[in-house]
Write a structure and sequence with these properties.
By secondary structure, the chain is of the alpha/beta class. It contains 9 helices and 10 strands. Helix 7 links the parallel strand 8 and strand 9. The longest helix has 14 residues. The radius of gyration is 16 Å and the shape is globular.
Length: 228
Amino acid sequence: MSARSFLVTGTDTGIGKTHSSVALLHALRAHGLRAVGMKPIASGCDWLDGRWRNEDALALQAASDPRPEYVDVNPVALPEPTAPTLAAIAAGVTVDIADLYAAHGRLASNADVVLVEGAGGWDAPLADGLEHQDFARHIGGAVVLVVGLKLGCLSHARLTARAIEADGCRLVGWIGNRIDPDFARADDYIDLLTGALPAPCLGVLPFVADGGDLPATLSLDAGWIATL
């Protein structure tokens, strides 16, 4: 593949993978890289312009340069806001894994970096017969973990990191996301996570209320980018 790729996963669902992915795309572009986002399977879509479209996938598309076609950013868009496997059943959709990989290939042919956002946490299936580790290994095995900073995140993050390595993939970095504005010991947990996780912290994003902007606040080290 012409591009370096990595998969973005999270310690849970609803912990800001898209928020973090958009910031990461902007940070990669700030280093002069052609960086594009992808969300292979998205549930919870709206009917817009004659087809199902997903808010998170649209955010990734808007943050990408060059701007890819929506059908490549999000090949499978499912209306019901639930686990993708259940949403596919409800929609009567059979996911063609080869089509997902082909869409990634098209993105990779015109970019330096492709960021693939998963669905839910690491052990949540992407589709019937497709796990996160399958997609991650297909694109090279590099994974970035988004940690939602809240009580319990240390255990969730450590367990996810172990699972990523056990599944034959590489945790190459993690992002802290302040999802709880009332979590008073977030800084202490960031210190614990920095010591516990076998990959560098790429940054910590501030809390953003629903409907707020997604700020590009990550400042990436050029040496880290070279390791992807």
